[in-house]
Amino acid sequence: MQTRHLGSQQQPVSALGLGCMGMSEFYGPADDAASLQTLAAALDLGINFFDSADTYGLGHNERLLGEFIRQGGPGRRRQMVLATKFGIVREVGKYERRIDNSPDYIRQACDASLQRLGVEQIDLYYCHRRNPAVPVEETVAAMAALVAAGKVRQIGLSEVSPETLRRAHAVHPIAAVQSEYSLWSRDPEPGMLAACAELGVSFVAYSPLGRAFLTGAVDSSQLAEGDFRKNNPRFVGQAEQINRELVAELQGFAAARHLTNAQVALAWLLAKHPQVIPIPGTRRIAYLQQNAAATDYVMSPAEVAELDRIFAVERVAGSRYPEAGMVGIE
Ligand SMILES: NC(=O)c1ccc[n+]([C@@H]2O[C@H](COP(=O)([O-])OP(=O)(O)OC[C@H]3O[C@@H](n4cnc5c(N)ncnc54)[C@H](OP(=O)(O)O)[C@@H]3O)[C@@H](O)[C@H]2O)c1
């Protein structure tokens, strides 16, 4: 597996990370034993960058990673680059959220994450969503204090604007911005990618497979009860039909190159900029292997341009989140 680098510390990470969210919530039922095997398979494939958050399964995701680390011992911990997040506060069984960026909350949230993960330090600690009522300088100062205390190695921000990134970076180096970025979600182009390049900040692309829609493997009528995608505007009604036509074009592009849709979606992101690190989520070893192989395909500028055209912003139907999910997105 090729490596890329996190932020100004140049901490090496695998060019693809593993998004662990679906192992706890949002995409239907998950099985802890299978998830633990998938996590182990990731390390075997050279994928060492694991993405979690305190809100995923309300602590379940971090406990699962903690169990994985405990089972493998200190040697395993040293192999991993662990990223987690604070700031989204939800109640059991509810998607609606409030955002807490207050320094007191950040300190408590960090201690709780360290405990669930069973580690002494978080490699990359993100503010998951911004609360505009709290100046970002105050939030970043609280995060920087965690670095000074040795509880956190590097810090990051999720779903912020380039302006917020610049303000934050002036207080303490920001290692990474994590936001949704994929063929059908192009908000980071060009402003955020340019700001990251200028400041030496990595860009971690979440939901790089469009929550599986881009793979062509999702039948929205078959989604399990409670699956978040049942209420995602891009997966329902007329929008779904329009978006399916784009995925059919992607399918043609992929088949002509003996690739899968997922591999094309990931190779496209890797080709966009050397600081982009996609973190596809999966609970299955077969998908993990398929996704890892995407790093072997080097996409030409002409291929990137062709995919840019197929998924031009005006051709994609529906917003990327339901209204409740847009809270805290800049
Ligand atoms: N910062 C944020 O606000 C934020 C928001 C959302 C997500 N994230 C992070 O980003 C990670 C990735 O995003 P995501 O999980 O939302 O979406 P994603 O990576 O775009 O898609 C994940 C879905 O794709 C399926 N899949 C994976 N590889 C596949 C393949 N080769 N063929 C067919 N299907 C495949 C997975 O299925 P199975 O699970 O069944 O294997 C899962 O349903 C998350 O796990 C989380 O860590 C961050």
Mind sketching the topology for me?
Layout (H helix, E strand, L loop, with lengths): L2 E4 L4 E4 L3 E2 L12 H13 L4 E3 L8 H20 L1 E6 L1 E3 L6 E3 L3 H15 L4 E6 L8 H13 L3 E7 L3 H10 L2 E7 L10 H9 L2 E5 L30 H20 L4 H12 L3 E3 L6 H8 L8 H10 L20
Parallel strand pairs: 3-4, 4-5, 5-8, 8-9, 9-10, 10-11, 11-12
Antiparallel strand pairs: 1-2, 6-7
Helix pairs in contact: 1-2, 3-4, 4-5, 5-6
The structure holds NADP nicotinamide-adenine-dinucleotide phosphate.
Question: What this model shows, in words?
Answer:
With 330 residues, the protein is α/β, with parallel strands linked by helices. The protein has one domain: NADP-dependent oxidoreductase domain (TIM Barrel), CATH 3.20.20. It is 39% helix and 16% strand. The protein has helices spanning 32-44, 60-79, 103-117, 136-148, 162-171, 191-199, 237-256, 261-272, 285-292, 301-310, and strands spanning 3-6, 11-14, 18-19, 49-51, 81-86, 88-90, 97-99, 122-127, 152-158, 174-180, 202-206, 276-278. The strands form 3 sheets. It has an 8-stranded parallel sheet. Strand 4, helix 2 (60-79) and strand 5 form a beta-alpha-beta unit. Helix 1 runs parallel beside helix 2. The chain binds NADP nicotinamide-adenine-dinucleotide phosphate. NADP nicotinamide-adenine-dinucleotide phosphate binds at residues 19-22, 27, 51, 128, 158-159, 178, 206-212, 215, 217, 262, 279-284, 287, 290-291.
